[in-house]
C-alpha cells in the first residue's frame, strides 16, 4: 500500500519567522512523509534572527523567501496550521475536509525582537511540530 505524503500549510501574518520555522521543522522531521509549505497574509523578508536560530539547530533556511497565501496550495492541504490568533479573523475559511490546527505562538519579533525570544519561539514550534506528527501518525525522523 502506497502512502501519500501529508500536505501541511503553516500560516502566520508575515511569513518571516514562525511559519518559516514550522515549515523547516516539518521538512526536517517529516522527510518524504510530508509536503510542507508556509505563507503569510503579507510578505516581508525572512528575518535574519529566524535564519540564525535555525542554523543553530543545523537547519539552513537562508534560501527561503517570504510568500503570501496561495489558495491552490491552501485548498490542496491536508492540514492548515495557523501560528497566531490574528489569522482567525483574516484567514480564508478552512473547509471541513481539511484539518484546522491553531497554535498561538507569540510573535518573537513584535516587541524588542530579541534573539532569545526567537529561540524560545523556535523551541515551542519544534515541540508543536513533533506533537502534530504524533497526532497524524507521521514518523518523526530524528
From TrEMBL:
UniProt cross-references to InterPro entries, sorted A to Z: Ptyr_pPase, Ptyr_pPase_sf
Family matches, as SMART domains: LMWPc (SM00226)
Phosphotyrosine protein phosphatase I domain residues: 6-135
Pfam families: LMWPc
Name listed for the protein in its UniProt record: Arsenate reductase (Thioredoxin)
Organism phylogeny: Bacteria, Bacillati, Bacillota, Bacilli, Bacillales
Keywords: Arsenical resistance
Coiled coil: none
Domain of life where this protein originates: Bacteria
Key word Ligase present: no
Keyword Translocase: no
GO biological process, one term: response to arsenic-containing substance
PANTHER family: ARSENATE REDUCTASE (PTHR43428)
Source organism of the structure: Paenibacillus monticola
Amino acid at each position: 500500500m502506497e502512502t501519500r505524503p501529508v500536505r501541511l500549510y503553516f500560516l502566520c501574518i508575515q511569513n518571516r519567522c514562525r511559519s518559516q520555522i514550522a515549515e523547516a521543522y516539518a521538512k526536517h522531521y517529516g522527510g518524504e512523509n510530508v509536503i510542507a509549505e508556509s505563507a503569510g497574509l503579507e510578505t516581508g523578508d525572512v528575518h535574519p534572527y529566524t535564519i540564525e536560530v535555525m542554523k543553530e539547530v543545523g537547519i539552513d533556511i537562508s534560501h527561503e523567501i517570504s510568500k503570501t497565501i496561495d489558495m491552490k496550495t491552501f485548498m490542496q492541504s491536508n492540514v492548515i496550521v495557523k501560528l497566531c490568533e490574528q489569522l482567525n479573523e483574516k484567514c480564508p475559511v478552512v473547509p471541513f475536509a481539511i484539518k484546522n490546527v491553531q497554535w498561538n505562538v507569540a510573535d518573537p519579533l513584535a516587541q524588542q525582537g530579541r534573539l532569545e525570544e526567537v529561540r524560545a519561539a523556535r523551541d515551542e514550534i519544534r515541540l508543536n511540530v513533533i506533537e502534530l506528527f504524533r497526532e497524524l501518525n507521521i514518523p518523526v525522523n530524528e
